[in-house]
Structures
1.
Amino acid sequence: MNFFRINCIALFITVVGQYALLAQDSIPISLNDAVASALQKNTDIISAEYGVQSSEFALKEAKGNFLPKLMLAANYNRNIDRQVLFLPEAFGGGGGPAELGFANDYQSSLNLSVPIYANANFVNKRLAETRLDSQNEMTRGTRLLIANAVKKAYFNFLIAQEVVNTQQSRLANAEQTVTDIEKRLRQGTLTDYDLTSAKVQVATAKNSLLEARSNLVPFENMLKLLTGIDDGATLKLTEPIELIEEELVLDEDVSKIIQRNSRLKQLEIDVALNQEQVKMAKSPFYPTLDAIGNYNYVAQADDFRISEYDWINTSLVGLQLRFTIFNGTVTKNKVEQAKIGKKIAEEVKRHTTKEYRMQHKELLSKLEFSKQKVAVQKENMELTLEALVLVNKRYRFGVGTFLEVNDAELANTQARLGWLQAISDYKAAYYDYRLLIGEE
């Protein structure tokens, strides 16, 4: 008896554990949750944020050019053939070469350089700042693109699930009709033709259901990939399939595109970046001035008795001015290339602005059309459902025919699928509209 109780308890724990595991794997997720997960875990966004960090370090690197540079150097030379000096007889020489130095040469130096003025340093700093602005805007644009993709993937998966439910309902009704016809066939009120036709409708409904189910896995995988959710989890979408109030309110002010659209802001920064490139190309036209300092500690000898060496200290401070007089027109040609790059950036920005203005107008028209289509399809769905109820009543009372029921069932299914497609079209257009005006 005790052994039986122990087995029952063990079985109960196992079953409860399996159900708990399934409950953990089934993740209820709203649209906002999906977007938040993607913004936190999506690979493209993480990579873009790393790009921002890299640009921040590049800016610190550019600022480092304004700081002093202190370098320590040490070297040892073994003079195989020593340097010589030719002294004329007037200076006490015999006219031949006189060797200089010793076999072992030791040198150590400490060099200090402080930039006082360098046009390239200032331009390089502005370039790094502009690149950081560009990377920040690219990251914002990536977030907008991912949010857009997640919202579309979410509703694609949600509507695919509803299509499966619709086809399952259609199949259940078709199977119920077959059962009913079989009863009436035994009673002699219907024929074999009616039964065969009903079975054909069951087969058609099964095929439609299989096709609908085949779309679930790709849509679910796309949503998981975008949101960074574990591929072994089961998603339970909690959003209703409907148009909410805020999705019906549209701003027709096209100036918002210029102000908020991420791509246009990136192109605007590209123009500024190319302007800084022109200035960078011109920087060799300007002189550079540095304050320098040098401290040397040297010794020479023919032996290796280092402790007996005479170590000599030398030091200096000064200013170093450099100015390029002629470099073979290299700088001039670099400037012209940079100017062309700026013109290209301006032309791309102008064309893209025009394109987005037209796209804004097109999306507003598409949204208005889709909104009307949703309303028409909803009305059609309600009418076909009412017709289906009436036909079923007629059929139960023996007044209607199987073909009428089948036609009404098919019309209702098509109306619901049309309504789902209209919802999907509106949602996709609305999310593209939000992306265009630079809002998540």
2.
Amino acid sequence: MSGAHLYPFRRINPGVEGEEMKLSSQHVSLIAVFAALYVVINMIQMFSIGNPFVSGPVQLRVADCLIALAALLGWPVVFGVTVGCVAANLLSNMMYFLGPVDIIMGPLANFVAAGLVFLLWRHRLLACVVGALPIGFIVGGYLWWFFDVPEVLAFMPVWLGMIVSITISSLIAVAIIGYSLLTILSSPSFVKPLKSLGLKVLEKG
């Protein structure tokens, strides 16, 4: 992976006076956009359409589809979905009262997941599948403290059943919905406008 891919906002001539400040501002702005999107999607899912599957033993968090976009835009997505998860979990705790463990471990799971997607960005489907797994293991690894395992998985030990449940949900959100979104946004009709804004887009050669 080249240095340019590690720094999605670095231009050919980053030494121009004032350029670093401009790029840093752009970087932070994109992180904020993804954090806000993550929160908004969760709130719409939780409240507007009455879908409870944002937190709980059966969890299809649609906002996790944004994690797949780390294979397109790199670190801003990684940090964006992490910060967004902090805010979303704070809000969801008003309903489920899972406490500090959810506010810490949930965002950690998103950071690891999106980081793996970014690391494997050249192999996008694989990246999305692998990226979904940490959410299942980390989030499922503590949710069994708070919820009963879904009945269909009751034949398993509680901790294992919860990991399986969250992993399946995560695969749907990241490897199916997310990968589909990533494929659409990777088309030239979307990539060209992104580049025109000065963003570094990760493209397979």
